[in-house]
Amino acid sequence: MSAVAEAPPSAPAIGPPAPGSAAALPGAMAALGPVPINKWLVAVSIAFGSLMATIDSSIVNVALPNIRGELGASIQEITWISTAYMIAMVLVMPLTGFLGGFFGQKRVYLISMVLFVVGSALCGTARSLPALVAYRILQGLGGGALQPTQQAILRQTFPPEEAGMAMALFSMVIMIGPAIGPVLGGFITDNYAWPWIFYINLPVGIVGILMTIKNVREPDDVRIANRARAELARKNLDIAGIVLMVVGIGALQYMFEEGPQDDWFDSLNIRIALFLTVFGLAGFVIRELTATSPVVNLRLFRDRTFASATVIAFIMFAMLMGSMFLLPVFAQESLHYTATLSGVVLMPRTLAMMAVSPFIGRVYNKVQPAFIVAFGVVLFMVGSYELSGITLETGSGDLVIPLVITGAAFACLFVPLTTAALSNIPRHQMADAAGLNSFIRQVGGSVGLTIFATMFTNYAATARAALWQHVTVLRPEVVAQLNGLRGGMLMHGATDSSATMMAMRSIGGRLAAQSGVLSIDRIFVLQGILFLAVIPLLFFLRVPRTAGPVHVEIAAE
User: Fold this and answer.
1) Exposed e or buried b for every residue in 25-60, given b needs 16+ CB within 10 A?
2) What pLDDT sits at residue 6?
3) How confident is the model at residue 9 (pLDDT cuts 50, 70, 90)?
4) What is the pLDDT of residues 525-541, one digit of tens each?
5) Rounded to the nearest 5 degrees, what angle is found at the Cα of 174, between the Cα atoms of 407 and 342?
6) Dist CA 457 CA 465 (whole Å)
7) Model confidence over 299-310: pLDDT tens digits?
8) How many helices (H) and strands (E) does the chain have?
9) 318 three-state secondary structure
């Protein structure tokens, strides 16, 4: 069933209009039925917002050193540029369905786009850290609703038999953003000033807004259902749910973003955040399950397909973000690539995802999603095993095949999971489900990034301590290497003592690089093993092929 434009009402007239007259035209158009819209134009129109929001999640990280130098901020202070954006974005995601009920999905998307574009413009003009953080919050508030709203609109626009293709388009947008963000950010930072990483959003955002206004229409049944929901929500406004959600989710995201830098629970701020997370989220869940008109519909988890697909997506994004963190670290710190070059080296994974996603979208209706996801799990394990063999001698060409395999794996995972998650959801609740699904994915990414970053540091320290035990003057090869380095320093004019010290530092640097590679190898093996946890959940990932989106008449809930 395609989304349709609402036919304009006929103008009042005295007496029957003459056949073929201008007054008879609206009635004639109404008799022909609603005007269909081009689903592909809708897909392109709403892709701009999600693409910008996902790119901005990573593009700023590359420019942080430049921003820090210009604004005079400390390393710990500058991280708030990314933290503030992520917290604001995650807070809005679960509210997408609630906001759509009040204002309509199209209006929510347009308002979010305007906020994002305005926030981007203001970020480029910021000349102090507090101002930049405030503008990033505004940008995050706009970006948070873009992904779920795009997902819901696509599912409501494309017919059920093309749901897989719709989610293939969605996955390409969502997965491309984090991949090209560092490349684009590095290029802009290296060749232009850092404010242009924000200004580049302006023309793209304006084009997206204009195309959305022209091409996107809200389906009649969804609009009617949203009106009924908004009427009920006004009478039973869930203020307590909103407050508990803001406290719990805000504290949770702060803990994941700042925990690694603050030594986790050695920091009072992290302990306070943990307390607010536990009690805030516990109160939020209780409130939403008992409220007359909950702001976030947690009852959607009663559907086993939605619940299993969302949990698997949580695990998938944890692995994805962990991998996207480790490989740039290896490329920049071990292979000494620039940020731009490291992003280019990792592009084969993105290209593989783009190539495989449409194919998965086409076969979705012919193969149960559980089988596609299982195949993706196997591919991911194979790719992780291949990546676990990287060394300091690994070149960019050696990474192509493992990256292509993991890129194909994520296409096999993301497309069926996002499609199956909404397969049993009523059309008027798709924005709720998409917001909740996007929120869980985002939290999964934060958890994965935090866990694997911490594991990388700990494993590297352990490996370095073990390697140092073998660096002793009792071993001839160590003495020979030390003397060779020391001789080279002396030939370049260093004193005897400084040459010895520099030679020891050089060996220490080599040990640090080697320990980092050993740590990365170990984590990739662990990722492949951990992903086996997905297999039992596939039992619940069943989608009846005869079932389309469920239509439910709205009553007072």
Assistant:
1) ebbeeeeeebeebebeebbebbbbbbbbbbbbbbbb
2) 40
3) very low
4) 888 888 777 788 788 77
5) 55
6) 12
7) 888 888 888 888
8) 24, 2
9) helix
What is the gyration radius of the CA atoms in the chain, in angstroms?
27
Query: Do 533 and 304 meet the contact criterion of CB atoms below 8 Å apart?
Result: no
CA of 100: how far to CAs of 23, 215, 236, 290, 454, in Å?
Answer: 35, 18, 17, 21, 38
Residue 242 has a CB neighbour count (10 Å cut-off) of 17
Quote the Cα angle for 439-90-341, to 5°.
95
The pLDDT assigned to 483 comes to 67
The dihedral over CA atoms of 226, 227, 233, 235, expressed in degrees to the nearest 10, equals: -170
Q: What is the 3-state secondary structure (H, E, C) of 471-515?
A: CCCCCHHHHHHHHHHHHHHHHCCCCHHHHHHHHHHHHHHHHHHHH
Q: Determine contact, residues 174/147, Cβ cutoff 8 Å.
A: yes
Cα 467 to Cα 463: distance, rounded to the nearest angstrom: 6
Average pLDDT over residues 17-27: 42
The confidence score (pLDDT) of residue 118 equals 92
- How much is the pLDDT for 28? 39
| Separation between Cα atoms, residue 139 and residue 56, nearest integer Å | 9
How many Å apart are CA 161 and CA 159, to the nearest integer? 6
Rounded to whole angstroms, how far apart are CA atoms 505 and 422?
Answer: 56
- Quote the pLDDT of residue 10: 40
* Separation of alpha carbons 447 and 307, rounded Å: 18
122: pLDDT confidence band, cut at 50, 70 and 90?
very high
